[in-house]
Specification:
The chain has 1 helix and 32 strands. With about 425 residues, it is an all-beta fold. Strands 9, 12, 16, 19 and 20 form a 5-stranded mixed sheet that branches. Strands 27, 28, 30, 31 and 32 form a 5-stranded antiparallel sheet that branches. Strands 8-10-15-13 form a 4-stranded antiparallel sheet, with no helix packed on it.
């Protein structure tokens, strides 16, 4: 409740450390209210408190409330010279809507004693002998009466006690990698770490990844080695690049950890990627045939001559198989559609990328499309060069990827049959932008 001189005032929540130093540069969270001439109730939700723009140090309102120790009131006007600066009355401050609010105090009655004095005159008759004459002597007697009046004046006293916020630090992690990779090529693995707790985590770093199944050797990573500070609700990523040295199915496991003060926080449960299939490269068959000819001639006369013919040369044949033309155009799924580099090796750069795929018939056009995780088309690249059946390498300029935010996107190749004009679409694959 407030009353006053009709001017506007500020109610402030100072944000200070244990030594009383102001942490917002005195740009405290505050709200404006009016003090009318009669007692009036003012409702001030914390959501209406705000800092001024353009000066001081910004802070999060939830953090300020967690460390609140007091309220302050301040004028919001300049008084004329020689006049009273301010007239503000504040009473019955009540906090509500919080998990544990200060209790409302019970008013205590205060007794006020009021003394009333009443004068009473008593007359005493005195007889005089002889003559039977009565003489009256007036003797004033003062009688005092104390009257006690109990005046119940409710006086509410509030004590604000800062309740320490229970820290609940946490980390969560997940691993992303392509569903397949070809032996002799590179495999990129990305771990995304999130801070879902209520405290900033420092020195966040991934563990050494565990490869279940083998077939990979580390080429580089993790990049970066750590994240100095992971704020509440924020994400960070770490990238590894592996050489594919074997074939078969593998699973990659790992964790992330950091510090909340002296406490070590580790992601739980262990982050596990979906299975990855390591494929053998498509073989190229080369068959070599060597034919050797020998002939023997016998003359008619009695003299016998043996003539051995030696072939002039050795014939060598090399047979290289080519894909058989199918009846319907398709992007061959037995050979994965790959994009390289994936992701870009240096964060923030947009290098040229090569997309490798295989078709079973000649094509006249290939369209490369990129979609967001929500399925929205954001990039389209078209190549009108005629390509024969077999493996095709599509070179996409780095400028095509410029402007994309860091994250995981999905791409597809659509080809057009040279003879029939029909189209075929590749499986959906991932590309990572960092």
């Amino acid at each position: 409740w407030v009353k006053g001189d009709g001017n506007n005032y500020l109610m402030k929540i100072p944000y200070t450390d244990g030594s009383g130093n102001n942490l917002t540069g005195y740009n405290d969270y505050k709200v404006t209210f009016n003090a009318p001439a009669v007692w009036s109730q003012v409702d001030a939700p914390f959501a209406t408190f705000a800092q001024a723009a353009g000066w001081g140090t910004s802070a999060v309102i939830s953090t300020v409330l967690q460390h609140a120790k007091e309220f302050q009131w301040q004028t919001n006007f300049n008084a004329a010279a020689g006049t009273v600066t301010a007239d503000l009355w504040v009473d019955e401050i009540l906090l509500y809507g919080c998990a544990s609010c200060p209790a409302t105090q019970t008013p205590y009655p205060t007794a006020t004693n009021t003394t009333a004095v009443t004068n009473t005159n008593t007359y005493t008759p005195t007889p005089t002998i002889p003559g039977a004459t009565n003489t009256f002597t007036q003797t004033p007697t003062n009688t005092f009466t104390n009257t006690f009046t109990n005046t119940n004046t409710p006086t509410a006293t509030y004590t604000f006690t800062t309740v320490p916020t229970v820290s609940n630090p946490a980390l969560s992690a997940g691993i992303n990698a392509p569903a397949s990779a070809v032996q002799g090529q590179l495999l990129t693995v990305i771990m995304t770490v999130n801070n879902p707790g209520n405290a900033d985590i420092t020195n966040v770093a991934p563990s050494t990844l565990s490869i279940i199944g083998g077939g990979l050797s580390l080429a580089s990573g993790p990049t970066p080695a750590n994240d100095p500070t992971l704020a509440i609700g924020a994400n960070t990523t770490f990238t590894w690049v592996y050489n594919v040295t074997g074939t078969g199915g593998i699973v990659i496991q790992g964790t992330a950890s950091g510090n909340d003060g002296a406490l070590v926080i580790t992601s739980s449960p262990v982050s596990v990627s979906s299975g990855i299939t390591l494929l053998a490269p498509t073989p190229t068959n080369t068959n070599t045939y060597t034919n050797t000819y020998t002939s023997t001639a016998t003359p008619v006369n009695t003299n016998t001559f043996t003539n051995t013919a030696t072939p002039v040369g050795t014939a060598t044949f090399t047979i290289t198989p080519t894909p058989t033309l199918g009846n319907v155009i398709e992007v061959v799924t037995a050979t994965p559609v790959l994009i390289y580099p994936n992701p870009n090796p240096t964060p923030g750069t947009t290098p040229d990328r090569i997309i490798a795929y295989t078709v079973n018939r000649p094509i006249t056009k290939a369209v490369f499309k990129i979609y967001t995780s929500m399925g929205r088309l954001i990039r389209r690249y078209e190549d009108d060069a005629t390509q024969m059946q077999g493996k095709v390498l599509l070179n996409v300029a780095g400028s095509y990827f410029s402007g994309l935010a860091r994250g995981i996107y999905y791409y597809v190749i659509i080809v057009t049959d040279q003879a029939t004009g029909t189209e075929a679409k590749s499986p959906i694959e991932k590309v990572i932008i960092q």
